[in-house]
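Hi R.,

As promised on Friday, here is the backbone we talked about, encoded as structure tokens. Could you run it through your design pipeline when you get a chance and send me back a sequence?
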């Protein structure tokens, strides 16, 4: 446990008797990491209960985080839901020194002409997506245009479900260590997990199938869902298009019934009304925009966890301000497992 280090602001004075080897200075982020904090009685305690995964974590406001953890615990797991982004959040950013594939990026249509056409769309629209000068409403229209053209090409190019299976098998995509254990813990506590993605639900499900080798009855995917005909060819998409700028709790309604979306028999028990009655949220994302996933949900307490995968030095301040907890350097999911376990633990009377 002594290896667990927690990074925080300088707002709490450092107690004199803490040995210096409990502090480290990381040049990369120019911040101190520490393993101790003061409790209300002015005593120093090891933050084992909110300390996560080695020196890869930072917390902007410890007290606020502790208060939120206490509130969520008090209301119990029956009021909790987890909302998670998929790419770069549940999945690793780097794999064997290379960027991991995204769920969209891994897809090879089995038709080089159409793969190229989708790449051309990416080359045109991606710069617009990241252009900070384009107003949001205008950008949302462009994103919708991009997604619909891409979906059109997938249909026109004759995408088959078999192509999805072989694309996933060949892809460079992997879950963070601890994701299975996180889902298991939440399943055991009947806490639903909604995976929100502007990608393709069918691909994400196939990734779950191939990489986790099991399904979870508490895990649901809110994303663009395909309709295949009896020959296994893609013929249409269900519901409204979910793109990067409308990926939020409203997407549940836009995408159609959850049971329908699940498509297969993984025995999901979640439905929209039960999700909406769960007023505490553990949100996981890797972009500040992912915080919008809880828009449309009238939550009491939200604990947000951000994975800062790239541009760590320049983005650490904004991430620390935006998220309650931030993991860096492609950290594992073990810290979130610990946090979730804390949130689901019974509060003694
Ligand atoms: Mg992401």
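Update: got your reply. Pasting your designed sequence below so it's all in one thread:
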């Amino acid at each position: 446990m002594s290896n667990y280090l927690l990074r925080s602001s300088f707002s709490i004075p450092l107690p004199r008797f803490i040995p210096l080897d409990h502090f480290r200075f990381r040049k990369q982020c120019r911040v101190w990491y520490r393993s101790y904090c003061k409790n209300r009685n002015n005593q120093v305690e090891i933050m084992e209960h909110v300390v996560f995964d080695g020196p890869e974590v930072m917390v902007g406001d410890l007290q606020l985080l502790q208060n939120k953890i206490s509130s969520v615990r008090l209301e119990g797991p029956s009021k909790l839901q987890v909302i998670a982004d998929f790419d770069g959040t549940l999945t690793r950013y780097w794999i064997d020194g290379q960027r991991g594939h995204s769920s969209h990026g891994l897809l090879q249509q089995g038709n080089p002409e159409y793969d190229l056409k989708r790449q051309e769309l990416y080359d045109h629209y991606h710069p617009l997506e990241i252009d900070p000068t384009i107003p949001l409403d205008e950008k949302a229209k462009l994103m919708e245009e991009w997604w619909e053209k891409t979906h059109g090409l997938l249909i026109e190019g004759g995408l088959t479900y078999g192509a999805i299976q072989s694309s996933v098998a060949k892809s460079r995509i992997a879950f963070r260590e601890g994701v299975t254990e996180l889902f298991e813990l939440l399943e055991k506590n009947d806490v639903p997990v909604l995976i929100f993605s502007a990608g393709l639900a069918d691909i994400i499900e196939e990734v779950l199938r191939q990489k986790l080798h099991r399904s979870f009855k508490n895990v649901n995917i809110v994303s663009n869902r395909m309709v295949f005909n009896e020959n296994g060819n893609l013929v249409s998409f269900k519901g409204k298009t979910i793109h990067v700028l409308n990926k939020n709790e409203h997407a549940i309604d836009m995408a159609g019934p959850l049971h329908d979306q699940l498509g297969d028999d993984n025995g999901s028990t979640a439905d929209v009304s039960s999700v909406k009655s769960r007023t505490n949220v553990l949100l996981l994302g890797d972009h500040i925009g992912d915080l919008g996933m809880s828009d449309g949900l009238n939550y009491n307490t939200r604990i947000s966890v951000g994975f800062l995968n790239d541009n760590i030095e320049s983005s650490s301040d904004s991430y620390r301000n935006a998220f309650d907890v931030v993991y860096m350097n492609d950290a594992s999911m073990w810290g979130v497992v610990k946090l979730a376990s804390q949130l689901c633990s019974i509060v003694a009377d």
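One thing I noticed while checking it: The first helix runs from residue 62 to 75.

Thanks again,
M.
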